[in-house]
Amino acid sequence: MLKGKTIVVGVCGGIAAYKVVDVVSRLRKQHAQVHVIMTEHATRFVAPLTFQSLSNNPVVTDMFAEPKTWDVEHISLARKADMMLVAPATANIIGKVANGIADDMLSTVIMATTAPVLFVPAMNYAMYENLVVQENISKLERFGYRFMEPDTGVMAAEGESGKGRLPEPEKIVQEVLKTVTVDQDLKGRRILITAGPTREPMDPVRYISNHSSGKMGYALAEAAAGRGAAVTLVSGPVNIQKPENVSTVDVTTADDMLEAVLARQADQDIFIMVAAVADYKCASIADKKIKKTQDRFTVEMVKNPDIAKEIGKIKGNRILVGFSAETNDLESNARSKLDSKNLDMIVANDVTQEGAGFGTDTNIVKIIRKDGTINEFPIMSKLDVAREILDEINKLMVNG
Question: What is the domain range of residue 91?
């Protein structure tokens, strides 16, 4: 994903510096060229040799050290960078840059680069909430610098809990990928995505549902928004954070979801039907809790609407993508849905495979197009799967 890209990583003096070792390792695995600049205080937490070994490049720690090349080093690094990542970003470095102070190599390179700069703050929660720090962050954001929200949890040094933890390395790398590699190839496109399960009530306390977590649909919404699309996410009940820059509509039942989709379908260019919609619902819903009085209990079920099929009837020349989660006969079942629902493309996965089932952060999929083309993908993160799906949609838009 980062082949040919140069990431300059600035490491500041905080206990969370140890996590950045993993960040640099992950960036290298994405084939990025990584150059590390460490502040003097950062070297007290992690040895420069560690970053040098992982990045395969000299680590800069001293502004006045003898240069390794004849280039003016801070200008050279500033020009090489496709992006700068500052992690952990301390109150000190944020304050320096916000007030135009460039008194070490890191602050100087930040000042000299025209590449995007992403600060990932990590500090004591009281320090992070300090009005001076928040004002400096707001000031830098107005200037176009980017910030990643710190996590909330127990602080490594103090043992106290609050907002100020460095996010996990995987999240930081995903943010780097989003910043560096994303083309705005979906700008101007309007995409409606369904996600999560539906819940079909039996009585006021019970319902019928499935194991869908919503992670795949949410990853698609995040990836599409990152590529410039105007995204509407119609979501069943899930326990994950709503993606940024996405219009989210919360629903519960299949009927709710159908109503929400139909109400918005006229404005859409692309439909991606990821939700695991319950196939059946109760023929009648008890108005009071059903008591456990018999050894056997029979519920009469009726078929739910097929939302993808309904859109397939009215989509015209717009793009409709479906999903097929199967436990057997993957390709034949997926092809049957592709034809019967008038889909342009279907994403099929065998949920019995390890790493491809509900609730995981990974998936293993096959993308089957209407023309019979099949693309098979190895196990990868759901965000990476989302990117592959959007790439395939782009091909459909270009080639028809």
Answer: 6-181
Q: Is 152 helix (H, G, I), strand (E, B) or coil?
A: strand
Last residue of a domain, one of 181, 201, 219: 181
Tokens encoding 195: 């996600």
Query: What CA dihedral angle connects 145, 148, 150 and 156, to 10 degrees?
Result: -90
**Alpha-helix residue ranges (DSSP H) falling in 30-152:** 48-55, 73-80, 91-98, 105-112, 125-129, 131-142
The ranges of the chain with pLDDT < 50 are 70-72
User: Is 390 part of a structural domain of the chain?
Assistant: yes
Q: Which residue has the tokens 């995007």?
A: 116
Q: Domain of 321: which CATH number?
A: 3.40.50.10300
| 161 and 197 housed in the same domain | no
Asked whether the CA dihedral 324, 242, 256, 267 is positive or negative, the reply is negative
The model's pTM is 0.62
Q: Which residues are catalytic?
A: 210
Are 27 and 11 in contact by the 8 Å Cβ rule? The answer is: no
| 195 lies in the same domain as 79 | no
Write the pLDDT tens digit of every residue in 277-307: 999 999 999 999 999 988 999 999 999 999 9
